[in-house]
Amino acid sequence: MAESRQARMLVVASPAGTGxxxxxxxxxxxxxxxxxSSLDLSPGAFPAEGSRADxxxxxxxxxxxxxxxxxxxxxxxHGPVLVTLDDAxxxxxxxxxxxxxxxxxxxxxxxxxxxxxxxxxxxxxxSAMLQDMARVLPCDWLxxxxxxxxxxxxAIAADVLGAVPDQDVAALVNSAGTTPLQVVEVxxxxxxxxxxxxxxxxxxxxxxxxxxxxxxxxxxxxxxxLPWSFxxxxxxxxxxxxxxxxxxxxxxxxxxxxxxxxxxxEMLGEPVAVLLRPLREALAAGFLRGGGAEFVFHRExxxxxxxxxxxxxxxxxxxxxAVTMLLGREHQDAVSVATHLVHCARPGDAEAVSAVDxxxxxxxxxxxxxxxxxxxxxxxxxxxGEPNRIALGVTAAAALVRMGRLSQAVELARxxxxxxxxxxxxxxxxxxxxxxxxxxxxxxxxxxxxxxLEAGAAAGGHDLSPELLLLNILSLHNLTxxxxxxxxxxxxxxxFSPDVLAAALTVRAMASWREGDLxxxxxxxxxxxxxxxxxxxxxxxxxxxxxxxxxxxxxxxxEALAAVDEACGTxxxxxxxxxxxxxxxxxxxxxxxxxxxxxAEAAATTGLAASETAEMPLFQPQLGAVLVLCALRRGDLVxxxxxxxxxxxxxxxGHPHPCAVTLRLIAxxxxxxGDGAAAAIGEIRPYAEDPRLCAQLLMEAPTATAWCxxxxxxxxxxxxxxxxxxxxxxxxxxxxxxxxxxxxxxHGRALVEQDTAVLAELRERCxxxxxxxxxxxxxxxxxxxxxxxxxxxxLNHALGGYDEIEAELDSARVRRTLRRLxxxxxxxxxxxxxxxxxxxxxxxxWDSLTGTEQKVARLVADGLTNRxxxxxxxxxxxxxxxxxRQIYRKLAIGSRVDLARIAP
Length: 904
Fold this sequence. Notes:
This protein is mostly helical.
């Protein structure tokens, strides 16, 4: 239109509440992006002086037109104009006549006319005038606006809240209805009732997360966690139905969120045909939707609100009727039966408790959340001293541990176990075992060993073996004892289950690694992976994690990432929420080894959040170590030093810990960056002078040997440098098949002997980007005093390599060296694949975003949720959230809406 300089008219005729006003606002925003100015003639905006009541009805049409014309003419001097008239059916005829006259006068100007009218008002005089106006200009009539999609409803909610709705708020929003008016009303009700809190740009319910699925079905108060305003709204809608439709919906809600018409008819004692009218009414009112052979409540909150409207005595009686109906069938759904039983079984009904326990156990492998909810609520129909009560508690504790609700598992076990109750030894011992596991994963050093030994000595129990439990406890707290037990198990392998053998092989793999026998270590780890069941019964020693740990330190990073993906798949498939942080820990270490500092930092940050959510701090030191190294790589010494302090505080003094060697190496690297080589040597010397620990120190990473030798030489401690080089050569001779070990030894020896030919040869063989850059810097160091031109050339190679992987600390060191040689190099940004040359990356604006951040930004701007972006980019939703925070900071924006407006 702007090019043709011809006016056009668009009329939107849609029912009230369907989004006419929002469409006008969005149309105005889009027009502004295309260079249009706007003129609003809607009620309340026209005329400018006085009130609508004072003027339009009494002022002549020509006088009104004279008010509109100059405004429009002034805007046209600067470009095309969009004129909007919302709710045109409410506009006095004199105003519409004036608008029509102005249209005719400016028909050859680039003016767009956007008018809206409620479809139900088409019989009014104003609507007749609109149809006459449509003959003045080329006109398009827009069909009535369709019901909002879920994503569109959430976008409106996000605008109103100024934050992204979380899963619970989204469920309430999408339960409200399909028009913008309904969405805005439910959101504003939540805000007015102080039901919403915004944390990190995410809108959450003040009362905490809502229950879902079976947890709702077995809750004694299914609507109790719903916000009161939502319950009131759904109650009003329910009471607006006919009494017959209300009864049908309430009985259907007892059957579940989904139900078959045959089951509903049987519960009501009516033929299926009788349900046709009430079900049609419920469908039209938005309570139900068709779901194949079943009807399904529109959303879970709708189902919960309807179920909660049934008085409790009637609800219990209906559950009992449902149990009778289901048990009378040849093929029974044990979980459905158990879900009804927890509401209606009499206390002390051992058969009912056994049925609930069996159903909960069947859910445990795939859905520990559902298993926990069913088992915990099943305890309501048991009494103290009943054997089935403890058995049900075992299932509940096992599910809680797997979910990551460790404190709740410990408290449950304490509540159920009574020292004075001599009966039911086997279930009680199994419950103590799960209590021990929860304490172990929670990091309770003061109690876990004592309780663990007691549980391990007792007779087996609930799909656990005492040997497996002890191997897990001892591998964390006493590796020497664990090695002894593991070797005993392996010597009598035929007596033990696959999981026990897998645990023993894992301990042997770690022991062999520490002994410097890398072939045996990797073979044992692979054998453990092959031996274990698909889902190990105690997850603290899953062999896959040990395999990734070893592969990462050997520099076999592609294999390590593949193993991490397998570990992630296993954990997700079986609902092991307690271990969510472990694959993230392993992935972060691999990404850092690959030189992807941003992704490593994101994974580690997400892993820390996951470990705190699951109350499982065992791997927090490893995550903290990655974050310290990321900060150090970026040159942020303050953050690195602070992180190191927290890391040292997290590892008890005088207590053997798997991260002790890692911690010492990192402490040396932080000291080198802040206080120089001599301070770094002071940190690592105690380990360097112990032959066993020295070897472990050098095996921490393929780059560790070169760093240790280089630092010792810089501290003028040639004897220590020789010790490091000789230890690395001993490791290489013992493990000739492992190229990273051989290269590390050759690198260390070449540094000691200042052999540039070997250093150059190693650079050609090496694939690790950081090592290649450091080799170039090492070659330059040899030539600094003898061949300035060669030194500058090599330093430039090193600088490019460090910049490529965002190793800002190393880049800064190389720049200082170049300046001493009289060469100045500006700080450059990471080279993207399509760049012809490196350019400085700005600190703000779109170009300040990393490649991954740009991908995330574009997908979010296109309307994808964090979960959808995560699926698209093969990362976790938490990682997407991390990138979004970085994006908002760099672009100086505060919401997804802002991002959508500015994304190119």
